Model the fold of this input.
Amino acid sequence: MKIKTRTALLFIALSAALAAPAAAEDQTTHHGRSNAAERFDKADTNKDGKISFEEFAASLPDFMLADTDKDGKVTVAELTSYLEGKGAKPKRAERRAKRIVKRYDANNDSAITATEIQSRQKKVFALLDKNDDGSIDNNEWPSRNWHHGKGHHKGTKKDNGQNSAE
Done:
């Protein structure tokens, strides 16, 4: 699998994990800036033009908040309830919860832990940090929103239609 495809797939997984509702089809906000640029600015909490791993991890949803029984593991049922509490419709919440657990569950025990979440975040961060300097700058940050679905990035400037998400 080509590096660009792997990077895109990992970023898709990250995007799918975000707790916010699905992004609108329009790639710009009402301020004329791209959603990607706004996400970069929001994640860059110290406004130094770079995102450290700590800033990156803090900008992502804390799925451990869904651990209602406080056993250190988040199950599909717990995550589904959490997402419903954030406004997701029940069927959509369950589908998203299943996808998230499947992607983050490194030991295949049908639950995710804080360690598994952090491990996944480190992998995605490392892929985004193309120059390996320990931070993500604006040039390394993906320039557009990625939507899930087959062939979602086919034909973009990034791959000229040569790669697919399959």
Summary: The chain has six helices and four strands. Residues 84 and 93 are 6 Å apart (CA to CA). The two ends are 10 Å apart (CA to CA).
